[in-house]
């Protein structure tokens, strides 16, 4: 049965590809065909058709290795999952119709062919979806790691003075990380003054302020002084309107002024060399 | 009625999405950086309250014009437990979650109009508006 189907497909592969291409071009919305030069379309279509048929070609049962190979290649085409889904749909429908036209499929063997098609297509689809979601999960977890690497390192700038630049949104998880790194760093670097730079924090709401206040309190407990620097004018106004009390520690507009203040607090000045 | 867009609040990251949307809409309305920060912060507070107390809800943002005046309205709605004592919540320094207790009264001060409708066991609906001057 499979053999007849494979023969039927292979003999008419050009017609199938042609029809499939037409059907895919009719698809509205973002598909890659619009942006592809025609020779690339031709090549990709052939590749896709070859991949699709390779699954039913030589063997009766599709091996997992072969399927994985297929999905890996399809994912590499860079198509959206919606487009791939449609592509598989259209392909199978066209093949079915063509085999009907050529009388490979007829009333007597219809049922068994339907089963073959179902097995063929559903396993493909499942694999495609799995491959895509794995790809996304991988991306998300990689970005999470990248974000964690970015967040909150305490940098020793001068003896007794350290700076922690904060960039981006502060959520509960990051706030915890900030606190840990801050305290660990203060002790390890023997810092006396710590500058918390919030120039890169887009929004300072009550939660962020709360975390900052807690961090500053904790720094005081381990015997150092915490300064909040990089307060932009609009952030200053919002903090005042919210009614957040930041009187317990020193604040400055820029890191530069904070640094001058920190040097003064540790009884040092920077002089120009003669 | 103007153009309305919304963000569903389910996770902490949806708060970021909501205020990003708010900032963009505020920018489109023509607000300056200070008012943009105010609007964004207000959205952040309301979205966080939804996340903390109701679990899930929605932030809707609408730009509008009325008699030649432009403005932005934000509606925060949830089907959470409701606010038991709204007077207390509007006091500075009151918090049930160990926070600063500046959120709700702060939002009121950040915006021009502030309306709360809350019902125990039914949910909360907060509508805030800022006018472009």
From TrEMBL, chain A:
Alphabetized UniProt keyword annotations: Phosphoprotein
SUPFAM superfamilies: SpoIIaa-like
Pfam families: Rsbr_N, STAS
The organism's place on the tree of life at top rank: Bacteria
GO MF term set: heme binding; oxygen binding
Gene3D superfamilies xref list: Globins (1.10.490.10), STAS domain (3.30.750.24)
Span of domain STAS: 151-262
Keyword hit for Mitochondrion: no
Protein name, as recorded: RsbT co-antagonist protein RsbR
Species annotation: Sporosarcina limicola
UniProtKB/TrEMBL annotation, chain B:
Documented EC number(s): 2.7.11.1
Domain Histidine kinase/HSP90-like ATPase positions: 34-133
Enzymatic class: transferase
SMART domains: HATPase_c
Keyword set, alphabetical order: Kinase, Transferase
GO molecular-function terms, A-Z: protein serine/threonine kinase activity
InterPro entries linked to this entry: HATPase_C_sf, HATPase_dom
Stated name of the protein: Serine/threonine-protein kinase RsbT
Organism in which the protein naturally occurs: Sporosarcina limicola
């Amino acid at each position: 049965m499979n053999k007849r189907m494979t023969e039927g497909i292979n003999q008419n592969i050009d017609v199938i590809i042609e029809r499939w291409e037409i059907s895919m071009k009719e698809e509205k919305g973002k598909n890659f065909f619009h942006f592809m030069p025609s020779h690339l379309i031709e090549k990709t279509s052939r590749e896709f058709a070859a991949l699709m048929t390779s699954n039913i070609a030589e063997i009766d049962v599709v091996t997992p290795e072969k399927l994985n190979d297929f999905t890996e290649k399809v994912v590499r085409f860079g198509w959206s999952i919606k487009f791939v889904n449609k592509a598989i749909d259209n392909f199978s429908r066209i093949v079915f119709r063509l085999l009907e036209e050529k009388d490979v499929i007829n009333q007597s063997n219809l049922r068994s062919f339907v089963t073959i098609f179902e097995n063929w297509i559903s396993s493909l689809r499942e694999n495609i979806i799995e491959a895509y979601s794995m790809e996304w999960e991988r991306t998300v977890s990689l970005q999470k790691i990248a974000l964690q690497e970015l967040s909150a390192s305490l940098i020793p700038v001068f003896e007794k003075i350290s700076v922690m630049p904060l960039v981006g949104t502060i959520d509960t998880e990051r706030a915890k990380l900030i606190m840990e790194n801050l305290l660990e760093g203060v002790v390890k670097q023997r810092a006396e003054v710590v500058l918390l730079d919030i120039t890169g924090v887009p929004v300072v709401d009550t939660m962020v302020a709360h975390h900052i206040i807690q961090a500053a309190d904790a720094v005081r407990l381990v015997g150092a002084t915490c300064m909040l620097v990089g307060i932009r004018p609009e952030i200053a106004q919002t903090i005042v309107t919210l009614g957040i009390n930041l009187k317990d520690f020193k604040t400055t507009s820029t890191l530069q002024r904070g640094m001058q203040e920190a040097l003064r607090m540790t009884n040092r000045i920077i002089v120009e060399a003669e | 009625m103007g153009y309305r867009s919304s963000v569903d609040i389910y996770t902490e990251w949806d708060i970021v999405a909501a205020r990003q949307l708010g900032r963009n809409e505020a920018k489109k309305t023509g607000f300056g950086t200070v008012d943009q920060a105010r609007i964004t912060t207000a959205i952040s507070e309301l979205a966080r309250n939804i996340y903390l107390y109701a679990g899930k809800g929605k932030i809707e943002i609408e730009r509008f014009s009325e008699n030649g005046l432009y403005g932005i309205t934000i509606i925060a709605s949830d089907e959470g437990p409701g606010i038991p004592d709204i007077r207390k919540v509007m006091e500075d320094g009151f918090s049930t979650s160990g926070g600063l207790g500046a959120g709700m009264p702060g939002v009121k001060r950040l915006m021009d109009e502030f309306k709360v409708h809350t019902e125990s066991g039914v949910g909360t609906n907060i509508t805030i508006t800022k006018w472009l001057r």
